[in-house]
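Here we describe the complex-level prediction in full. Unlike the single-chain runs in Section 2.1, the two entities below were treated as one system.
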Amino acid sequence: MRRRQRWTWLLSVGALVVGFALLAAACGSKSSNANKNTNTAGTQGTGGGTAQNKPFANFRIAYDTGIDFLDPGLSYTVEGWAIMWNVYLPLVGYKHVNGPDGATIVPYLAKSLPTVSADGKTYSLTLRKGLKYSDGTPVKASDFRASIERDYKVDSPGVGFFSNIVGADAFSKTKKGHITGITTNDSTGAITIKLTQPQGDFQNILGTTFAALIPAATPAKDQSTHPAPSTGPYMIQSYKPNRSAVVVRNPQWKSNKGTGITEVPNGNPDKMTFDILGDPGVALTRTLKGQDDYDFQQPPPDRLGTLQSKYSNQTKVYTPANTYYFFMNTRMKPFNDVRVRQAVNYAINRQALVRIYGGLANPTENILPPTYPQYQKHTLYPYNLKKAKQLIAQAGVKGMSLTVWNHDRGQDPKATAYLTDVLNSLGFKAKEKIINSSVYWTTIGNQATKAQIGFADWFQDYPHPLDWFDVLLNGTRITQTHNNNYSNFDDKAINAKIAALKKQTKLSSSVNDQWKALDKQVMQQAAWAPFINRQFVDTFNSDIDLGCYINHVLYQFDFATICHK
Amino acid sequence: MAQPAAETEFTLDTAAELAAEESAAVIRGRSPWYLAWRRLRRNYVAFAFLGLFVLIVAACLLAPFYAHHVAHTGPNNTHVLDQITVHGKKLDVVSKGGVLGGKLVASTPVGPQWFAAGGKYMLGADTLGRDIAVRLLYGGRTSLFVGIVSSLICVVAATILALLAGFYGGWLDFVITRFFDLFYAFPVILLGIALGAALAINGINWGPIKVHSGNILIPTLIISYVLIPYVGRPLRGQVLSLRQKEFVEAAIAQGAGPLRIMFTELLPNVASSILVFFTLIIANNIVLEAALSFLGAGVQPPTASWGTLISDAQSLIVTRPWFAVMPGIAIVLTVLALNVFGDGLRDALDPRAKVKVEH
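The structure predicted for the assembly as a whole is:
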């Protein structure tokens, strides 16, 4: 899923006219908190601190504008999933703990983990008895099938995950009847899923938000502002796009928890308020001044020194599994020529991009991030502008017009400003196209847009190489809309390799070696121009007890487990 | 020739007084334009601010010269990893930041170097290592272009509509006036943002007219479009009033056609107002461009304008506040110069007129 950082809109036009008002604002916010302790790098401490049981009426979060939807069938951003993790529960999910153990799959709404048939094609689960949605209606096994079918009906970006289920492809065409590969029994709670072929990451897929259960009667249209009833410890009370979201306790949670859901914590705050703010500087100031408890956004790079000197005991630095890259549309000129894609890889100086992100990043040329056991660093494209120019000359595309796409938040637009300058230095006539972040992914994911080149990032949905190669680079999964393969990369050999590796149910060392080789193979084709693995800073106000801080391997900071000092 | 005591009171400088200055032997008829010029040239404050505006325009026009010969970089050229030599020491254009030695370190671009780096980064660099001084000058070109061209389009369109509405009256006047009312109903900024946001994505594709979404013509057209009623409506009032005058009736009696009456009888009589509107609305449009660009609905990156420079400076507001203040000062000086000169022009052309741009 994609990380959405920040957005630069600030509705303060008066400041423009005089300019001086901005200076006044800059000088007006100094905190007296001057703790010199350092607590920056590394977050892999233990969660579940001592103050968990203290009442916490309202956890206020300075959020960014990156929420695409608050509908489990539609959302595909970190912002959306981070909120819904504690709201809409799938049959299985992940442990709410720090560190690598967070990738352990545990039963949520299912009684136990699925039993898999010997041929790896049939998954059987049983729904816990007595579960209720937040509106009091009982949870039924058939709701699982209805939720997956609804994903297809709402044209969810997650439908590609379920295409291996028997009958899913047929259902995707008609959207009538049922997916034949999913059978359910409401009286026993039995759920059986039949796959067309074994799939190594299917258990992970069952743990995604796309597979979370919502009532079968939920309308097949975006429910973000009319949130569907939930099964988790919280429910979404309200959502006003670009303004706020409010999450409160689910009145049915106690009863649901009583069915034996041990791996989902009750959560400490009674309420969580997400103040959606456009400016990261404002978000940081609000947090440090105590108007919000947590700053979801990234602090401006020039304020890191202040954070270190005055607020270091209120910050956490972490590196989630992510890759930032420039996509290059292989269906369009000039990027249908591998030499041009390679030239871009040679021409970008990844160290420069690290500095553009304030130094909170590591350069990369890999698809997979370094946290993966399948990662093997390769250096196919050391910075070499001369060679890049030679490749462009060989391809005969000098002087072509290019449009470089990006959204308008955080440091990301600066990355494409840099790329545009690089492309112009290669002899192209490149121009930027910066659009609102709320529509960016759907715009570039629509084939009608014909986006040539632009910014993209990826944060793992689940810790498996398939979440990168299959979702982002498999040519057989290219779609007309909600396409995640922005490069439209479609290499038969690589598609076949992905398909073969998909059948591997265990990630043995030999399988991992194959993934390593595939990473290199993809980059030899220069499907992307990856540039950094980014680090992040979580900032809290001084009232928060960071002993409770849990940074999950997938969902990052777990809002529900936080507590007061 | 002795100067009359009231000479500095340019607004009271009537034709009779001016005539009294001349010796009886050389009394000549003076056109209203000549009289206006006589009044204007005695308004030293207006002239001083006109000089300031000319200086700003000249500086902006010289941007390529400055970029090439002094700063040695273009407005969009990035220099993230470059170093400069200041007093014999190497200095990163953008300092290293992130987690260094277990501590968070801020990444900050160099501040104003004035002449310490041989003309490079005279006003500092942004986070991409782009020279702020170069971008400020290029940004001025953009802002002035948008301000002047949009004013020109706006005034021409508003004048035509005002002449049509005022001369013909009836249903045409009704339609044009309702068109003005429709635009009056929306705050200028909101209308500009709405149009700017829509066109920033799609550009303009109206049949044969195609404008790329990043083209500077888009904010120019938007600004001229949203301000038409603010110029057109007062002009229409003037035309409506002039339409009843005897000289118009005389022209009609002589068989003059509508076009001739509009352009040879009515237009010259509202020309002074148009000129004043044009001057004042340039200032207004420069501010509007800055506002729209600041909000992301105007000039698109990486093109520099004073508005985008202030927007870019937001992320450096704590450590490099001058980056936001400098384009702010440029806007203030330009707007002040145009407004003071515009006021002087208004006073000179028609001391009784109350022409001003309000929205």
